[in-house]
Q: What sequence folds into this?
């Protein structure tokens, strides 16, 4: 499978050199593996990847019978209206957006309304028609966890939750992805990069919360190298919401947070 996310890397280079708001930066992802500590949690050893040499493996992914927002889990509620995420838990990264080089467009901005609050992050535009293997992969709204360095250790958490909605005329299909050491190109591990662990999601015109636990996050089938058995929560890089080719979209994201066992 071709590396159809090669293009967005250019945005990251722009970000690294300009250090301005990450309005045009790049795809990040993240993953987490967890050593269990809390009540109601079950430690499950992450098995080495089948025939591939995945790094960052690990310890265990935190699995929970039920989840809740983590104590210091707030990634961003957007209420401050800026492009930096909430500075807590060692996180200080920025929001960014990226689009394929084949005509897809994205605008991102903090805006009203929020999910039961004042503000949210909105991405709107139109993606070009085409196929990912031809470089037409659409657009991404994303977050990187740290402003300096590459990895973020999210192993004490169990997953990520966010609230989202679309305007009535918007396309509703998207994929939420968490880039880690094995899937993000910047880690210099993957041979076929950008197939981050994540989940396909169908949005609605009403605000709804979506939860993606590290134990349930999956790569897309059929491509990517390596293909580890699980995400590596201790070596996350970024997360993003991706809209594929051929869609008009208008999406609102709010209350992004790490989850812990209930
Ligand atoms: Ca909000």
A:
């Amino acid at each position: 499978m071709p590396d159809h996310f090669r293009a967005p890397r250019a945005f990251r280079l722009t970000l690294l050199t300009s250090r301005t708001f990450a309005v045009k930066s790049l795809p990040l992802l993240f993953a987490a593996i967890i050593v269990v500590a809390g009540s109601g949690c079950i430690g499950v050893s992450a098995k080495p990847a089948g025939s591939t040499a995945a790094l960052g493996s690990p310890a265990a992914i935190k699995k929970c019978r039920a989840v809740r927002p983590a104590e210091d889990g707030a990634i961003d509620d957007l209420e401050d209206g800026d492009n930096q995420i909430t500075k807590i838990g060692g996180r200080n990264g920025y929001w960014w957006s990226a689009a394929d080089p084949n005509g897809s467009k994205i605008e991102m901005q903090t805006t009203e309304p929020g999910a039961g609050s004042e503000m949210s992050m909105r991405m709107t535009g139109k993606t070009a028609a085409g196929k990912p293997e031809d470089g037409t992969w659409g657009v991404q709204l994303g977050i990187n966890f740290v402003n300096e360095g590459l990895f973020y250790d999210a192993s004490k958490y169990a997953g990520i939750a966010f609230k989202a909605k679309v305007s009535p005329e918007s396309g509703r299909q998207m994929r939420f992805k968490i880039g880690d050491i094995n899937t993000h190109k910047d880690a210099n591990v993957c041979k076929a990069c950008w197939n981050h662990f994540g989940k396909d999601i169908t949005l609605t015109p009403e605000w709804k919360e979506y939860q993606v636990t590290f134990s349930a996050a999956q790569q897309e089938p059929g491509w990517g190298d390596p293909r580890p058995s699980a995400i590596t929560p201790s070596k996350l890089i970024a997360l993003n919401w991706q809209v594929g080719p051929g869609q008009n979209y208008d999406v609102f994201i709010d209350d992004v947070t790490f989850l812990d066992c209930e």
In short: Residues 1-52 have pLDDT under 50 and may be disordered.
